[in-house]
Design goal:
mainly beta, Jelly Rolls, eight-stranded antiparallel beta sheet, about 10% helix, about 30% strand, binds magnesium ion
């Protein structure tokens, strides 16, 4: 009996020691940053997060709209109907909290009923830092200028493909954004965006020419390192739900 106990204790100690010994190397060459070796056994692990299932936010996301409260936003205010924020003509809204580099998830739906065409059909927009717009529009069999259709970098670059669902259907944007960098008045590096529309990549690491504008060439003006996420009121009752963001 005593021997069995001793053996058990020994096994426990061996497994504890094995946990201490992290896999990796301490004699491999250093990476260019000079901080870590290739496969460095001492390099810290990234934090563990619980990924969202389906459309649910991951555990480390800042939830901007969960279907109930508009507390994260100022402007408008927009109405909350059946778990969605609805554009109501009271003006655009923007987050109270500001963000720079980020991963942003937004779900939106244009009206079932077609009110007009081109830019008047389900127009809204997602503005990174309040300045750089990914267009929201009903682009299901709706002709408009290409750099103004759904998922366009408005006034600059059409999406690679039109992944728009039919009017009234819920759609998603997953946006990966790198904020521009300024040094004094000089642009050091432009804003860069990757966009998935309904899971389809439509911009891959594309540079913004500058802050979004209408009928003019976008250009940069220096601004703070962080800004709000803004949603546009273009007079069409577009709905939004399940909005969350992660700082990168
Ligand atoms: Mg718009």
């Amino acid at each position: 009996m005593k021997i069995l106990l001793l053996l058990g204790l020994l096994a426990a100690l061996v497994s504890l020691a094995a946990q201490d010994e992290r896999p990796g190397y301490d004699d491999s060459p250093y990476l260019p940053d000079g901080k870590w070796r290739v496969h460095d056994k001492a390099r810290p692990y990234p934090p563990v997060v619980t990924p969202g299932l389906g459309a649910a936010p991951p555990s480390d996301a800042v939830v901007l709209f969960d279907g109930t409260s508009v507390d994260a936003w100022k402007g408008g205010p927009w109405d909350v109907v059946d778990g969605a924020m609805v554009v109501n003509g009271k003006g655009g809204i923007e987050t109270k909290e500001h963000f720079g580099d980020c991963q942003l998830h937004v779900e939106w739906a244009t009206p079932f009923e077609l009110q007009s065409g081109s830019q008047g059909r389900g127009n809204s927009g997602v503005f990174l830092m309040g300045k750089y717009e990914i267009q929201v529009l009903d682009s299901y069999e709706n002709a408009t200028y290409a750099d103004g259709q759904a998922a366009a970098m408005y006034g600059q670059r059409p999406p690679d493909v039109n992944a728009c669902r039919e009017p009234g259907a819920w759609q998603s944007y997953d946006i990966f954004f790198r904020a521009p960098r300024f040094e004094g008045d000089e642009l050091r590096s432009p804003a860069v965006v990757t966009v998935l529309h309904n899971g389809v990549v439509v911009h891959h690491a594309e540079e913004f020419l500058g802050a979004t504008t209408h009928k003019r060439l976008a250009k940069y003006a220096p601004h703070a390192a962080e800004g709000p996420v803004a949603l546009q009121d273009h007079g069409n009752p577009v709905r939004f739900r399940n909005i969350w963001i992660r700082r990168l």
